[in-house]
């Protein structure tokens, strides 16, 4: 009897315990349907669009944000910077040598990184637009938010237009069909239209690090400046007009005020990616990518400075292009590096002194100390691996230089003089009697050294296709990069850029 | 002999011999009648001298009989001049003549190896089956056969013991776990570890059970056997049965003390060799730091280890309990490393009812591990450092040189604090109720809890990561809880020659994981270690975190067995699993199996071979199993979360947290499904040799992998999806032979062999296109950022090395290569198309061998295991043989003679055959027979890892299967995936050679 009772209990347990609910319960994340209904939540979403400007690091790219995605690529293929192989280090499958020699192939991981940096930013914005669109916000309230997001998206598309040319345009998060290429002209038109449409709804004031009306005009100015290189139609006057819409900025008296740790107070910075190690921002390791391992002893007597990788340096000829009186020359480290503890020259592990030289033995086998180093951003003792200085994308001096260049190109070099003079005066440089394109080109090199935009200038001035250090003449098709090979594999609708 | 006894005997006797005995008994008993009777008594012992309760004593030719009582004693009225037959399952039946003047008969039964094996009951999931009735591929290892010695993780006890089951220990670190692979693994992403089932509780951490508490291990290998575990059965199932109270009272102590030391280091230049090189090469700049240091020795120590286990066992007719407590302290041969564990186990059972209708079973396992994870980056530094650098400066402080990857490894080990602690707990309560004669209902509820606490402090004077942070402290806590409830009913009925059994059940599993952590840098004083995080002033976003997640698994399962006359056996199972992890479109999966066996040796036509063929059984099985481990929680959903995505608000000049979409949701996500066919033979010969042979072929479909997806349109560049297909085919052979069975001398040998061939069949489907997945990352090695050494591609096994084929050195010492056309070219002329298949990490053959000898009271055991035909990339050697290293960095002795002048470049120049055979244990014991109630005391000495036969040039050919980027900083092995195995990359925690002395002492009362 007892047994029957027990059996009955057991059987009834079967049905009471019997639970077949398989819904997933979230604890530390939210489903997309449950987010985006309060102003705070909307702010947090829009904030995500900006945080993606810092890039990311994952198993596919094995790379660091910002530095290597767009910046490294744009600098290393230009006449400004190089990443030589030093012994075993920095060979990395030859990707940097290929970049220097202009022999890159579609499987170069730097190219893939640049592609993914921009498209991840775009996809995030598409997702955020989708998210906000579903929210209970009124259409009127949505309008400025969408304008800001779309203008930021247009910045990414501008990068893609510059780097890859014929890229697919995707604007709808829900559209998961594999897209095909748009022509470079279509991408150009898209960027122009998106920015122009957004401008009336954008914030007209100077707001640091946000995509304001000023930033949109700056990007438009860049677009028009490079219009001839992009689509074969020169639009110098449009560039001038756009530049004139950028207001509220001035050059800082000290050039390096733009590159100190607390550079967010600069009156000159139009657009920047904010970093703050305390806020958990990851990336921005440029200084450490360039300095020698032992450079830390020149920064702190006990070597209290993060690890450095002894990689990137200036191409031969860049350092000597600066006059000694040019204040901007200090953006590079050259010569003996002094150990703050001993007062004598730092010794490398092989027993030789750490003396940076402008010339390099070779791209394939440079010595540890060869090449002058990037030191534009402040290097401080006690700095953490995650850096605090903001990464500058657009400065007011670029607006000045764009106007100067346009006037020269429009045949009015005298009108260019007041613009370029502001820049040279601050640097402590003499103005030449006549302002020509060669002067503008050199001035762009010196003003924007290692700011991630040199490749575009080289292409616009045509120097990109001429031989330079460790590089022969470059064929025209290399003005844009190939679409990365893994992207082509996974999306059969895409066609490779011509020439590759 | 009453009818009930007859039935129970009938039920258990399945061996040929028992059947013969029964027939004999039944037919002849009627014809006999009593002559002059006398009362006899006696005791029955087993071959080890322990009393044997439940042995049958039958007067020959009659129905007259009895069984021995709890103390092995019997008494019986028998005819003078007659005989009795004493029998016990698994023993050779013994006939004793009854003489007029003796009335006390002590009988010692010898083991019948074959018969014993056949009546073993094997755990098959939700029930047990006699080994003779099995239809699937299942290997069993008894407690006596488990690997013994200095063991820190339970899976080690199975090393080399089961054909097709590879236990790979990547290093000699006592805190590092092992990787378990059955039949080659089935997944690219998901765990390839078999499901661990302890006393019926599925999915537990194997280390919750200590080796001393294990009674037997059954390894379910083919799909027909594992399909009862459905979506978790694809990698096989390891069923562990723990010891429970057996009849009698006994106290057992097992103790072991050992010393371990390093026998294999890399041969690098000594300080004097380095000076000799510098003199010869005339390098005036080379810096001689004046010391004389062997950096490898500087981080090593002699490891003193001990372990003690004490257990108390008590069993009566209807109840029993067993408790054990254990302590082990295994030092590592690298300073600071080691593992300390306290463990305890209590189990008890109680029958209720006149006929034992109800049984309650409970068990509780708990242990606490403490260890100090070491930073594996010390090995690279120990190889790098110039041997003239002293460990300490003259003032006693650590010497330090400033270069990159050049920090003093002794300083790294000494100055930084890593304290980890893990708590494991498993408890269950099980009730069996027999009803309606043939049914047994079982309810089993269990809870497993596993928690890890960590504390880290890198003081402000620690060169790596401490200095720049100004002291860095961290606390972490992570735990998971598995709560399970199971309810199943077994039915078992024998009608004449038909045996029918069936099972139906339901189970519910809920897994909750959660954790939190906090860290801070910037301490004014180093006095607090990690105990006062609030004292750190350098606070960053992301310095505190917590997380929580949950999944559940709901299952229904059923099994039916049919046996006819013990000759024809059929089994069919089905399981239906629903998992919260699966995507919306695939919430439920069904996993069927069917298998059949034929006892050929029981057929009439085999009568003529009875003299030598004890058993011959053919088994065929097919089944579908799944693997859902790789999915993880919430992967099918579109979710938003905070990463470390903060954004700057220029108005308030503050930072806030951004919310971003996290992943490409995949509502189609589901389990990987493996179809497997298995054909096997079991055989027994000459009553001495038993064995089995298996052939299997399995195909895994819907392989989970984080596939690269095109951006645009996808949100992120990767997405977890079910795409590929992989096959594994192989054969396995298990042989056990009693080569010599004598009164004093015995020789037993056990051999397992496995051969597996793996191939990726498909990587693309209409949605996801993948030509090749690059794996075997070399990222982080100098000059190899973003470089890969292996491919996963259709037609190749996982772990295929893909690269350039070398053509030896040219006159200048440059490594030359073959291009695709087979011409010898220089490095600069190579193009991608010249890359080719350079072999793979899959062994052609795995082997386990054990031999035991006993002579009187002495015993000698030797065991070893090996893997043959696999390749390994000796990346350590590749990076050390770099002409750029001297004079700053150390190099191998061989480098100076090698003439190599090219900088390290990945090619098959650095790929080696990593075949090996390791003598794992050699032990010699002496058993002291004690007078007191058959108590026993055994002393032994044992050597472990005494010799490795290999041609591999690195420190150790046994390389971790999962060394993704080397073992990570805290020494925790990446347990998932097959992505980057077989790369020897500075992660050579040396495997010690160990000499131990031990004592086993059993006191019976």
UniProtKB/TrEMBL annotation, chain A:
Signal peptide span: 1-20
Domain annotation SusD-like N-terminal: ranges: 97-225
InterPro entries, A to Z: SusD-like_N, SusD_RagB_dom, TPR-like_helical_dom_sf
Keywords: Cell outer membrane, Membrane, Signal
Subcellular location: Cell outer membrane
Pfam families: SusD-like_3, SusD_RagB
Domain RagB/SusD, residue spans: 316-464
Primary localisation category: membrane
Family indicated by similarity: Belongs to the SusD family.
Protein name from the UniProt record: RagB/SusD family nutrient uptake outer membrane protein
Automatic annotation (TrEMBL), chain B:
Keyword Repressor: no
Keywords for this protein: Cell outer membrane, Membrane, Receptor, Signal, TonB box, Transmembrane, Transmembrane beta strand, Transport
Chief place where the protein resides: membrane
Domain TonB-dependent receptor-like beta-barrel: 501-852
Lineage: superkingdom: Bacteria
Pfam families (UniProt xref): CarbopepD_reg_2, Plug, TonB_dep_Rec_b-barrel
Domain TonB-dependent receptor plug positions: 131-237
Topology with respect to the bilayer: Multi-pass membrane protein
Membrane-traversing stretches: none
Subcellular location: Cell outer membrane
PROSITE patterns: TONB_DEPENDENT_REC_3
Family note: Belongs to the TonB-dependent receptor family.
PANTHER family, alphabetized: HEMOGLOBIN AND HEMOGLOBIN-HAPTOGLOBIN-BINDING PROTEIN 1-RELATED, TONB-DEPENDENT OUTER MEMBRANE RECEPTOR
NCBIfam families: OMP_RagA_SusC, SusC_RagA_signa
Stated name of the protein: SusC/RagA family TonB-linked outer membrane protein
Species of provenance: Flavobacterium quisquiliarum
């Amino acid at each position: 009897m007892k047994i029957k009772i027990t059996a009955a209990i057991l059987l009834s347990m079967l049905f009471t315990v019997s639970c077949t609910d398989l819904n997933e319960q979230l604890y530390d994340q939210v489903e997309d349907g449950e987010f985006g209904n309060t102003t705070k939540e909307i702010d947090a979403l829009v904030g995500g669009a900006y945080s993606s400007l810092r890039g990311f690091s994952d198993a596919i790219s094995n790379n660091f944000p910002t530095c290597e995605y767009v910046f490294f690529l744009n600098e290393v293929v230009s006449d400004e910077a190089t990443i030589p192989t030093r012994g075993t280090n920095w060979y990395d499958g030859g990707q940097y040598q290929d970049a220097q020699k202009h022999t890159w192939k579609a499987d170069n991981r730097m190219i893939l990184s640049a592609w993914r940096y921009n498209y991840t930013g775009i996809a995030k914005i598409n997702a955020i637009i989708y998210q906000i669109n579903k929210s209970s916000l009124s259409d009127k309230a949505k309008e400025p938010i969408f304008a800001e997001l779309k203008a930021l998206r247009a910045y990414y598309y501008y990068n893609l237009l510059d780097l890859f040319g014929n890229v697919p345009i995707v604007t709808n998060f829900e559209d998961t069909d594999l897209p095909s290429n748009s022509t470079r002209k279509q991408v150009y038109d898209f960027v122009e239209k998106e920015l122009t449409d957004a401008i009336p709804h954008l914030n007209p004031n100077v707001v640091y690090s946000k995509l304001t009306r000023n930033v949109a005009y700056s990007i438009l100015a860049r677009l028009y400046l490079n219009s001839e290189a992009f689509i074969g139609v020169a639009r110098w006057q449009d560039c001038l007009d756009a530049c004139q819409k950028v207001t509220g900025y001035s050059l800082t008296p000290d050039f390096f005020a733009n590159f100190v740790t607390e550079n967010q107070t600069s009156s000159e910075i139009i657009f920047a990616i904010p970093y703050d190690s305390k806020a958990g921002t990851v990336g921005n390791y440029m200084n450490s990518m360039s300095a020698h391992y032992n450079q830390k002893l020149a920064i702190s007597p006990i070597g209290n400075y993060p690890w450095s990788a002894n990689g990137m340096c200036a191409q031969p000829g860049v350092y000597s292009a600066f006059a000694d009186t040019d204040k901007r020359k200090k953006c590079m480290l050259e010569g003996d590096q002094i150990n703050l503890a001993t007062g004598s020259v730092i010794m490398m592990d092989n027993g030789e002194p750490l003396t940076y030289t402008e010339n390099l033995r070779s791209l394939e086998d440079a010595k540890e100390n060869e090449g002058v180093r990037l030191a534009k951003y402040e290097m401080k003792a006690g700095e953490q691996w995650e850096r605090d200085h903001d990464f500058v994308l657009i400065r007011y001096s670029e607006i000045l230089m764009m106007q100067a260049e346009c006037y020269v190109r429009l045949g009015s070099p005298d009108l260019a003089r007041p613009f370029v003079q502001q820049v040279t005066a601050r640097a402590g440089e003499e103005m030449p009697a006549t302002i020509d394109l060669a002067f503008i080109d050199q001035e762009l090199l010196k003003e924007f050294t290692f700011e991630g935009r040199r490749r575009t200038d080289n292409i616009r001035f045509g120097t990109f296709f001429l031989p330079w250090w460790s590089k022969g003449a470059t064929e025209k098709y290399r003005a844009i990069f190939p679409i990365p090979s893994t992207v082509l594999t996974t999306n059969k609708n895409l066609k490779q850029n011509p020439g590759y | 002999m009453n009818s009930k006894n007859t039935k129970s005997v009938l039920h258990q006797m399945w061996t040929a011999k028992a059947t013969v005995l029964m027939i004999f008994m039944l037919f002849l008993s009627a014809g006999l009648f009593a002559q002059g009777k006398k009362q006899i008594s006696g005791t029955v012992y087993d071959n080890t001298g322990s009393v044997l309760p439940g042995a049958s004593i039958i007067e020959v030719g009659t129905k007259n009989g009895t069984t021995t009582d709890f103390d092995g004693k019997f008494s019986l009225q028998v005819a003078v001049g007659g005989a009795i037959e004493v029998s016990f399952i698994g023993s050779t039946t013994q006939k004793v003549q009854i003489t007029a003047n003796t009335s006390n008969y002590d009988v010692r039964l010898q083991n019948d190896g074959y018969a014993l094996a056949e009546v073993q009951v094997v755990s098959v999931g939700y029930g047990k089956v006699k080994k003779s009735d099995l239809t699937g591929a299942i290997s069993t290892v008894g407690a006596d056969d488990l690997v013994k010695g200095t063991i820190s993780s339970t899976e080690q006890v199975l090393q080399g013991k089961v054909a097709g089951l590879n236990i790979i220990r990547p290093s000699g670190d006592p805190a590092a776990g092992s990787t378990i692979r059955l039949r080659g693994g089935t997944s690219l992403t998901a765990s390839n570890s078999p499901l661990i089932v302890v006393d019926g509780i599925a999915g537990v951490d194997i280390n919750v059970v200590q080796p001393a508490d294990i009674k037997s291990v059954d390894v379910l290998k083919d799909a027909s056997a594992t399909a009862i575990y459905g979506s978790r059965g694809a990698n096989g199932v390891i069923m562990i049965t723990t010891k429970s109270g057996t009849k009698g009272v006994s106290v057992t102590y097992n103790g072991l003390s050992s010393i371990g030391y390093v026998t294999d280091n890399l041969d690098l230049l000594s300080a004097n060799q380095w000076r000799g090189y510098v003199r010869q090469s005339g390098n005036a700049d080379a810096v001689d730091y004046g010391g004389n240091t062997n950096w490898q020795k500087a981080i090593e120590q002699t490891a003193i280890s001990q372990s003690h286990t004490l257990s108390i066992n008590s069993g009566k007719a209807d109840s029993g309990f067993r408790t054990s407590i254990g302590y082990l302290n295994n030092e590592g041969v690298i300073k600071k490393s080691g593992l300390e564990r306290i463990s305890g186990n209590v189990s008890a059972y109680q029958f209720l009812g006149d006929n034992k209708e109800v049984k309650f079973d409970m068990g509780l396992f708990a242990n606490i591990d403490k260890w100090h994870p070491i930073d594996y980056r010390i090995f690279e530094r120990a190889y790098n450092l110039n041997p003239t650098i002293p460990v300490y400066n003259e003032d006693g402080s650590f010497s330090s040189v400033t270069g990159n990857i050049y920090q003093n490894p002794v300083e790294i080990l000494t100055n930084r604090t890593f304290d980890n602690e893990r708590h494991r707990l498993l408890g269950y309560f099980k009730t069996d109720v027999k009803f309606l004669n043939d049914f047994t209902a079982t309810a089993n509820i269990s809870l497993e809890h596993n928690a890890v606490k960590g504390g880290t402090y890198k003081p402000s004077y620690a060169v790596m990561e401490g200095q720049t942070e100004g002291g860095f402290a961290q606390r972490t806590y992570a735990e998971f809880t598995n709560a399970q409830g199971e309810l199943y009913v077994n039915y078992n009925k024998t009608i004449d020659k038909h045996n029918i059994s069936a099972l139906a059940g339901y189970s519910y599993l809920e897994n909750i994981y959660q954790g939190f952590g906090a860290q801070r840098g910037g301490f004014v004083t180093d006095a607090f270690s990690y105990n006062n995080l609030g004292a750190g002033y350098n606070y960053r976003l992301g310095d505190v975190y917590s997380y929580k997640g949950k999944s559940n698994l709901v299952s229904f399962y059923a099994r039916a067995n049919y046996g006819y006359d013990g000759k024809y056996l059929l089994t069919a199972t089905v399981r239906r699993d629903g998992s919260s992890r699966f995507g919306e479109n695939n919430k439920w999966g069904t996993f069927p199996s069917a298998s059949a066996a034929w006892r050929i040796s029981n057929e009439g036509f085999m009568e003529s071979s009875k003299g030598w063929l004890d058993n011959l059984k053919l088994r065929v099985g097919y089944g579908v199993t799944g693997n859902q481990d790789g999915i993880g929680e919430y992967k099918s959903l579109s979710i938003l979360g905070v990463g470390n995505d903060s954004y700057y608000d220029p108005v308030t000049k503050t930072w806030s947290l951004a919310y971003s979409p996290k992943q490409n949701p995949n509502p189609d996500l589901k389990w990987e499904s493996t179809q497997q066919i298995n054909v096997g033979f079991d055989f027994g010969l000459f009553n001495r040799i038993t064995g089995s042979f298996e052939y299997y072929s399995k195909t895994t479909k819907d392989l989970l992998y984080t596939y690269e997806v095109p951006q645009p349109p996808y949100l992120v560049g990767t997405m977890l999806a079910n795409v590929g297909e992989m096959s594994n085919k192989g054969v396995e052979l298990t042989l056990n032979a009693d080569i010599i069975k004598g009164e004093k001398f015995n020789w037993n040998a056990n051999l397992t062999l496995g051969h597996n061939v793996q191939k990726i069949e498909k990587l693309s489907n209409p949605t996801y296109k993948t030509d090749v997945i690059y794996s075997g990352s070399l990222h982080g090695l100098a000059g190899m950022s973003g470089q890969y050494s292996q491919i996963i591609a259709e037609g190749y096994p996982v772990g295929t090395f893909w690269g350039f084929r070398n053509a030896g050195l040219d006159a200048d010492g440059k490594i030359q290569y073959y291009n695709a056309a087979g011409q010898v070219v220089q490095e600069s002329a190579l193009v991608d198309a010249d890359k080719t298949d350079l072999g793979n990490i899959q062994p052609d053959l795995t082997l386990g061998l054990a031999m035991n000898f006993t002579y009187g009271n002495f015993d000698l055991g030797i065991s070893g295991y090996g893997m043959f035909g696999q390749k390994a990339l000796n990346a350590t050697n590749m990076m050390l043989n770099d002409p750029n290293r001297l004079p700053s960095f150390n190099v191998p002795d061989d480098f100076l003679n090698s003439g190599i002048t090219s900088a390290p470049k990945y090619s098959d120049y650095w790929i080696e055959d990593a075949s090996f055979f390791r003598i794992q244990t050699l032990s010699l014991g002496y058993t002291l027979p004690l007078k007191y109630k058959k108590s026993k005391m055994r002393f032994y000495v044992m050597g472990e890892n005494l010799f490795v036969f290999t041609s591999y040039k690195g420190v150790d050919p046994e390389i971790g299967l999962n060394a993704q980027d080397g073992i990570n900083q805290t020494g925790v092995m990446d347990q998932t995936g097959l992505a980057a195995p077989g790369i020897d990359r500075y992660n050579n925690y040396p495997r010690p050679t160990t000499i131990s002395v031990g004592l086993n002492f059993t006191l019976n009362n």
